[in-house]
Specification:
Strand content: 15-25%
Bound molecules: flavin-adenine dinucleotide
Number of strands: 17
Radius of gyration: 22 Å
Oligomer: single chain
Mean pLDDT: 92
Distance between the termini: 16 Å
Largest sheet: 7 strands, mixed
Amino acid sequence: MDLIYGIIVIGGGPGGIGVAVESKILGIKKVLLVEKSDNHSQTIRKFYKDQKRVDKDWQGQSVVLDGNIDFFDGTKESTIDYFDSLLDNHLIDAKFNCEVDKVIKMNDIFEVYTNCGNFLAHNVIISVGRMGKPNKPSYEIPVSLRTQVNFNLDRCGNDESIIVIGGGDSAVEYACELSQSNQVTLCYRGESLTRPNPTNIEMFHKFVSEKKLTPKLGIDIESLENEHGKVKVIYTDGTSQTFDRVIYALGGTTPVDFLKKCSVLLDDRGEPVFDENYETQIKGLFIAGDIAFKSGGSIAIALNHGYKIVSYIMNTKTKEDSHYPSLSPSSMEAYI
Ligand SMILES: Cc1cc2nc3c(=O)[nH]c(=O)nc-3n(C[C@H](O)[C@H](O)[C@H](O)COP(=O)(O)OP(=O)(O)OC[C@H]3O[C@@H](n4cnc5c(N)ncnc54)[C@H](O)[C@@H]3O)c2cc1C
């Protein structure tokens, strides 16, 4: 508890890794990354299928990297290897299996409360993502169907009839992957797919024209029922179909309760309020990664958040020190 970190970053996904690595590169020595799971990048490990193509320009967003961390197209595996090497090469102090409960600021210092002890910091960056709570449909999922109704591919096998629900890149990628060894329908309420990036749109049309994938567009689902252990999907036009498995790929939910516990101001949609430097209404408390987006997200943009935040912290600190020359350089030394 005596040690005061320059930065504590909550969440070991791309946003958190970006902050931690940029901090080291830009000169903040005392940095702690806190991750609730047993390793970094849980969204990538849990929601990306094995060998998934990882696009730098995800969802058609062309991103220029601003900071010191490079990022490039690859696969799930090469991306995890790359983040492993960033953490190793920059000697990032990380605590895994360490879940943050809340953050409280007192006398200009933040206290970060976790299940593995409490830590102090001058700045805290919250980068906990949205996939801790995947979006669910508005209708109830029958309890007896919970093993067949999934939000990632962990339980999928072969030779099943599967309906994938969603209209974004993840839905298309899940559907095309599963259709290699299953009978797959992709259901989206819009008349056509507009959100996925051009590569995924092209892949979708190719799979459909080769009859590997059945599209079911322009229709929504009203409810699910258990029909002799299978999932009966009832559509809004009154028709129905039965599948072995349902996969929802609907993105994730903003962790409102956690943000409230950290006293972050939320707007009327429940999204965190922050300025152009990603700083919340509490000085020194920042938001990075997916939760700084209105919807969606991107690894490259999450890395850019890290650079912007750390550069801002370094600049502000330097300016503050020059306003109080008697505190420099020893205060700066204590700070970093
Ligand atoms: C199926 C799928 C495919 C995708 N494909 C691509 C792609 O090809 N290219 C691309 O650029 N983007 C892709 N994305 C988006 C990309 O994964 C996200 O934009 C990125 O992971 C966001 O990083 P983040 O650090 O904000 O959040 P996350 O990656 O979600 O990381 C948040 C971390 O915080 C941890 N955490 C949560 N709560 C706490 C707590 N209280 N205490 C401590 N730790 C906590 C979590 O365990 C997690 O490890 C994809 C997303 C999905 C779902």
